[in-house]
Specification:
binds flavin-adenine dinucleotide; 20 helices; 803 residues; single chain
Length: 803
């Protein structure tokens, strides 16, 4: 056996083999895979082998498209068959909400180049005649849907990898993974120890156990899953063509032709987690006992949807486990806090996603970063706060919702509340309707009187509309208060702090007492952060950024660590409030003895202030675009600070506001937001973030690539639009039509309660990006006229924000 290697991939399921192949494809041939049994010995061998592109996340959908297109390439390369059946598939909608979701997906597919189509019930009946379309409003047809042979495909990946120089060691169980001081690993196996520069955990069903060998917790859990294969059915084998797939979210089932019969699987509500205490090492090529009880209701529903099933005998039952992360997406990338340890697990749809996972991980390892924003499957999207006790109920919830409508404003209830701030009970008593960010409870808005404490999930304007309008009014007309807990915050200190920040951030690093906004760029120039930097002292800084990107950012900081600088994550230690609105200064003046007048406390100043009993650090900035201050204190002081501000604020009409109002307020100024307008999919020039780049300061990460974008000029521009919407606003990824073709897409949008207008942000070709441009935006399948606007809807000259 080979005992030194650049990469040791642990696990020979479809995912491990895809990672191995993609590493060779990108030029690394000194790579090996170790498998404790034969290839496909985890979930892979008993998969139904179905594949599809549909995914709520646009980049995940694109990677699924990549996976599906790869199979033909793999067959041509290896001469092996993947057993492909490109039969197409239709997803049914039996409620208006589900139909809305499918229409929104179809609209996205336009600019992704996916040829999906909305079908009516009769068209569905025509292509999938065994379907009872009673109650079906329509469906989304995808010609790329199909199925394959799981084992053949895995072996094709393995052969392609071998052809690229990789070696595969089967019957080789990994017992330990031990890090060396230089960041490399000793992988201890039954056949000896392998010294590897990098380790990839593709342990599938055993990924938790393999992770534990290296001392890391990967948030995933196996679930039991069952599908049935019927006897031969004349309605199927007498057809001239193979029957397409039918996904019936209402019945939580997927159905396809299998040989001369059918195969149907269920995501049943009474689902069961498997191996809660850990996956037994002895589990091999075996199935779980049949369990008809848990799918009784699903079968009854399926009989109504496909009456043919009622007289079909069951030829075989496949019941096996596979793993899920809390949100159902894979866990991919460098594991935060570890060196050269990579995750390729939690892949619940290995045949839709395996290729994309392999490509992404290989790009990350070989080229330093993936080619697109892959946050939806980044292992860093769950922070170090995540625990097995949280993961399990979330995985169960995800399994149960696998076929549910995913609403943009939906807040899923399992395992909540978990992480709360000292304000939780106070805000709860004030009517907070809670959302969750990165495990933390955050008020979305405050219900009053007999308003329900629950926001109706919807693609259209929800029942939070009036409450949000009320909170926006309070900010714009008086003063609002909102917690600053949900910012990622970092304390950067030491004699090397300024030099490090100058290298890692593209923008100006401010002088003591001042703040700046700055993008953080990858070497490719793409945006990987959108930071506020406050200089507290010559060698002491505070950074604020997205709360949900903590591990994503810390991992980057660690990878680019500098001399004589210490970076501390203080996101949960430092908290407080922002106050915003025309009376914000009056309120601040009332609670401190310091001079906070416009000259003494300028826009973008940061100051230590005594407020009531608390020593606070106050930043004059506000994402609401209004006159505003962020007041930071130690988390232990937060309630005292609240009492001071709340009592003093009554004279000025102080009202709490939540995230729904915040998102509406930012639209008044067309402020972009992280993971919407700013993400690793975009460059600084096209998003306008280049205005914060300090080109003259010397080299910084991403300088050359961002400079090249500047020299060439971006092909597209992020612009703002006023939309003639009805009851639904832009959410994200709606196509923008110009001259009868799709030439752009939206990044986000919503309703500006201040201006009484529907607003969208999105990209159009640079040469068309002029004030007044008329476009059409497709929202939920309907065209809406929109006009490009360059003048903000509130405080266009910044007099209030800066005054
Ligand atoms: C009933 C059922 C139906 C399914 N249907 C579909 C479908 O239609 N479409 C679809 O896309 N997906 C489907 N899936 C899911 C699919 O099977 C998984 O997404 C996929 O198999 C995951 O592959 P993997 O490589 O990540 O993990 P696994 O297949 O579990 O592979 C992990 C491998 O790692 C090896 N390993 C673990 N620990 C060690 C160690 N310490 N040393 C050496 N080797 C080790 C194991 O032996 C195993 O071979 C289905 C799953 C089930 C159970």
């Amino acid at each position: 056996m080979k005992t030194t290697t650049r990469v040791c991939v642990i696990g020979g399921g479809v995912v491990g083999c895809s990672v191995l192949y993609h590493l060779t494809k990108l030029g690394w041939s000194d790579v090996m895979l170790v498998e404790r049994s034969e290839l496909t010995s985890g979930s892979t061998w008993h998969a139904a082998g179905g594949f599809h592109t549909l995914n709520g996340d646009t980049n995940m959908a694109a990677l699924q498209g990549y996976t599906i297109r790869l199979y033909r390439e793999l067959e041509a390369l290896t001469g092996m068959s993947c057993g492909l059946h490109h039969v197409g598939g239709v997803t049914l909608a039996d409620t208006p909400e589900r139909f809305d979701m499918l229409k929104a997906e179809r609209a996205k597919h336009r600019f992704m180049g996916l040829e999906t189509e909305i079908l009516g019930p009769e068209e569905i009946k025509a292509i999938a005649p065994i379907t009872n379309v009673e109650g079906v409003l329509g469906g989304l047809y995808d010609p790329l849907d199909g199925h394959l042979d799981p084992s053949g495909t895995t072996h094709a990946y393995a052969k392609a990898a071998r052809m690229g120089g990789a070696t595969i060691e089967t019957h080789c169980m990994v017992r330990e993974t031990n890090p060396r001081a230089d960041g490399s690993w000793d992988v201890v196996t039954d056949k000896g120890t392998i010294h590897a520069e990098h380790v990839v955990n593709a342990g599938g069903l055993w990924a938790r156990e393999v992770g534990a060998m290296a001392g890391c917790y990967l948030p995933l859990h196996p679930m039991e899953h069952q599908y049935l294969v019927t006897d031969d059915l004349p309605e199927i084998y007498e057809r001239d063509t193979e029957h397409p797939h039918v996904m019936d979210p209402g019945g939580e089932s997927y159905l396809r032709q299998e040989g001369r019969g059918l195969c149907i699987g269920f995501y049943e509500q009474p689902c069961k987690p498997w191996a809660v205490g850990g996956t037994p090492w002895g589990f091999g090529h075996e199935l779980l006992p049949d369990d008809y009880d848990k799918i009784e209701d699903s079968i009854a529903f399926a009989y109504r949807r496909y009456p043919i099933l009622e007289r079909a005998g069951v030829k075989s039952v496949i019941h096996g486990p596979f793993t899920f992360a809390p949100d159902g997406n894979p866990l991919v990338g460098p594991v935060p806090g570890m060196r050269n340890y990579w995750s390729a697990c939690g892949v619940m749809a290995g045949f839709s996603q395996g290729g994309g996972v392999g490509l992404t991980l290989a790009q990350w390892m070989v080229e330093g970063e993936p080619e697109r924003d892959v946050f939806a499957m980044d292992v860093a999207r769950f922070g170090r706060w995540i625990t097995p006790g949280y993961t399990l109920p979330k995985v169960v919830e995800n399994y149960q919702n696998r076929f549910s409508v995913t609403y943009p404003n939906e807040e899923l209830p399992a395992a909540r509340p978990f992480r709360t701030t000292p304000m939780y009970d106070i805000f709860d008593g004030m009517g907070a309707v809670w959302g969750q960010q990165y495990g933390l409870e955050v008020p979305n808005y405050f219900a009053q009187g007999d308003e329900p404490r629950y926001e109706t999930p919807s693609f259209r304007r929800s029942n939070a509309f009036d409450a949000t309008a009320r909170e926006v009014r309070a900010v714009r007309e008086a003063v609002g208060i909102n917690e600053v807990q949900n910012f990622g915050k970092y304390h950067v200190s030491g004699p090397g702090a300024r030099a490090w920040l100058d290298r890692i951030m593209a923008g100006l690093i401010p002088k003591p007492g001042r703040m700046s906004l700055t993008p953080m760029l990858a070497p490719s120039g793409r945006l990987i952060g959108d930071f506020t930097v406050a200089c507290l002292d010559e060698d002491e800084f505070r950074l604020t950024a997205s709360y949900g990107a903590q591990d994503f950012h810390l991992r980057w900081f660690e990878r680019n660590a500098g001399p004589n600088v210490r970076v501390l994550n203080i996101s949960d230690r430092l908290t407080g409030f922002q106050i915003a609105g025309p009376r914000a200064r009056d309120l601040l003046a009332k609670v401190t003895r310091a001079d906070v007048g416009p000259e003494a406390f300028r826009f973008m100043d940061v100051k230590p202030l005594s407020i009531g009993k608390c020593e606070a650090s106050v930043q004059r900035v506000s994402y609401t675009g209004d006159l505003g201050y962020e007041i930071y204190v130690d988390a232990m002081d937060q309630r005292a600070l609240w009492t001071t501000l709340w009592q003093a604020g009554q004279d000025f009409g102080l009202k709490p506001f939540g995230m729904r109002a915040m998102m509406s307020l930012r639209l008044d100024k067309f402020f972009g937001s992280w993971m919407r307008e700013f993400s690793p999919d975009y460059m600084p020039g096209e998003t306008g973030m280049d205005r914060f780049i300090r080109w003259s300061k010397g080299d910084f990460i991403g300088h050359a690539a961002a400079g090249a974008e500047r020299a060439d000029g971006p092909a597209r521009k992020l612009c703002s639009f006023i939309v003639e919407a009805d009851d639904a606003d832009v959410i994200a990824y709606e196509p923008i039509w110009l001259d009868g073709t799709v030439q752009g897409f939206c990044t986000s949008g919503g309703y500006s309660h201040y201006a009484g207008k529907s607003v969208a942000l999105g990209f159009v070709p640079t040469d068309r990006a002029v004030d007044g441009l008329k476009v059409e935006i497709e929202i939920l399948g309907k065209m809406h006229t929109a006009r490009l606007v360059t003048t903000p809807l509130f405080d266009a000259d910044g007099a209030r924000m800066r005054g």
